[in-house]
Amino acid sequence: MDELGWLWAELPVLLPDLYPEFYAGPIASRPAVLSTCTAQNGSATRGYFQSNVDSALRLKRRYNPSAKIILSVWWHYMCAQHVTGDLGYFVDDGNLAALFSVVGIDGIAIWGSIGTYTGEDANATEVADYLDRVWAPHLAARCRVVGTDST
Question: What is the reported pTM?
Answer without folding.
Answer: 0.82
